[in-house]
Specification:
The protein has 70 residues and is mainly α. The chain is built from two helices and no strands. The longest helix has 44 residues. The radius of gyration is 24 Å and the shape is rod-shaped.
């Protein structure tokens, strides 16, 4: 920053950079959430294709079914 800029300009620049950081962090979190959702859907589809009998099961029934398979 140039010494000729006043303290208000410096505060504004800091505020802009803080907002930019928040935006980038939100984008990163969104991308991570989308990747997680995609992975969960893909894994669920694989499970359903290998074990078609799990389709009507509840979450607890599926959990018990998978524990039996260990």
């Amino acid at each position: 920053m140039a010494a000729s800029q006043g303290p208000e300009a410096v505060r504004d620049k800091i505020h802009q950079l803080e907002n930019r950081q928040k935006i980038l962090l939100n984008r990163k979190a969104d991308a991570e959430q989308k990747a997680r959702t995609h992975r969960l859907i893909e894994h669920g589809a694989i499970l359903e294709s290998v074990f078609p009998e799990i389709v009507p099961m509840t979450g607890e029934q599926l959990k018990a079914f998978l524990k039996q398979r260990r």
